[in-house]
Amino acid sequence: MATPYHETTPSERTFIHNTLTQHQAFKLHKFSLDFSYGALEDAVANVQIQHYIEFAISRQVQILSVSTELIFEEFENYYVLPNVFYSHDNVPSLEQVSLKCFLFNTNPPCDRPFASLKALCFFNCVIDDGTLKGLLSNFPVLESLTIVFCHRLLNFKASWCKSMRLKHLVVRGMDNPGFNLEIDSSSLSSFKVHGNSVISVSSLSSIAEATVFRHRYYPYVKNFDTRTWLRNLAHVKKFGVSSWFSELLAREYEVSNNGWKIFENLKVFAWFGPLETECNLIALIDFLVHCPSLEKIEIDFRFSFSEEAGEHRPPFALERPFVENNGDGQPTVGFLDNVKKIIVHHFFGYKSEIEFIKHLMQKAVVLETLSLTYHRLELGPEYVSWGYTSCPPKELVQEKIFSLSTASSNVHISFHDTYHKLGF
C-alpha cells in the first residue's frame, strides 16, 4: 500500500484513512508513506501518521518506508517517531525499514528485538549517538545500514551494530562539525562514504569493496591520517574514489617523490573526476600501473564541464613526453598488464579527459573493450558568460577517440552518446 501524495489535502487524508480502515488483509508485504510538510501542519495529521505506521506494523508488514518531507524546518519541528514503531508485538516481522525526516526520542522503549530486520536506512533524521547505539543493539540480523544527512550525530562506529551479519555500510552527507566515523566491524564486506567526515578504518580482512568520495584532499586535518586508513584497505578488490585521491597521489610525489604501490589485489578501480592538473593525471596513471591484478577501470567525468571554465582552470594537454617516476628521479615504463575493460561515463570530450583515456589505452596491453558514453552539453548564453564552454561536436570527439593509438591489437571501442541543454 503506497500513498504517493506530496501535498495531501484534508479530504485526501480522510480518503486514505477510510481506505485503510476498510482493509481486511492480515499481512502486508510493503507499505510506503510520503507526506510533505504541508500535510503535517496540524495535530490531526500527526495523529494520522501514527495511525498509518501502527496500521502497517499491525499487518506484519515486511517493508516499511515512511517519509515526512520536512523541508527547511528546524530539527525540533521534525515529526517524532512514535513509540509504536519500537514496541508493537509485530516488530519482529519487519525486514526492511526506511525513515526520512524523523526526530528520535532519546532512549526510546525498544521492548522487542527487530528479529528479522536486514536493511535499515535513516535519511535526514535527528538522532544522537547514544540513541543510535542503543537501537543498533536491537537488530541481531542486520545486513545493510545506510545513514544519510542525519543530524546531532558526533560519532559513529560500525561496531555499534551487534549483528554479525552486517555486510554493507553507506554513510553520506555527514558533514556535521566534529563528526567522526569508524569503520571497525569485522563482518563488513563493503562500505561507501560520501562526505568530508573524519574517517578511520581498522585493518579488516573482510572488506573487499570500499568507496570514498570527498570534496577534496585535506592534508592537514587534525587527527585524520589518510595514509593510515588507505594502507588498511590495501587488500580490497574494488576501490572507488573521487578527485581527492589523485590530489593525494600528486602530493605524495611532491613530498616524497614516490607513489602508492600496495594495492596488489585490486581488480576493479572506479574513479569520479575531474582531473584538475596534469600532475594529478601523471600520479593517477602511475598508481594504476602499480596495481598488478587490475582488470577493470571505470571512470566518471560527471563534473568535468564545470572544471573546464577558461577563466578558472584552463583545460590541459600534456605537451612533454609522458613518463612515470620510480622514486629516484629516473623514468620508468609501466603497463596495465591485466586490464581488459575500461568504461567511461559522462565523457565531455575535453582535452584533459582525452589525455587520460589516451594514456590508459597506451598502457593497457591486453585491453579488449573501451565503452565510452559521450555526454554532449550545449550551454546557454549565461553559462558561456561565466566562462564555460560547450562540448565539441560528437563527430569530432568520435574521430579523436578512434584515432588514438592503443597498446592492444584486439580492443573494441563502443561509442555511445547523449545530448543535454543547459541554460536555455
From TrEMBL:
Q: Where are the transmembrane segments?
A: none
Q: What superkingdom does the record give?
A: Eukaryota
Recite the lineage of the species.
Answer: Eukaryota, Viridiplantae, Streptophyta, Embryophyta, Tracheophyta
Domain (At1g61320/AtMIF1 LRR) spans 20-374
Q: Which InterPro entries match?
A: At1g61320/At1g61330-like, LRR_At1g61320_AtMIF1, LRR_dom_sf
Pfam annotation, one family: LRR_At1g61320_AtMIF1
Q: What is the protein named?
A: At1g61320/AtMIF1 LRR domain-containing protein
List the SUPFAM superfamilies. RNI-like (SSF52047)
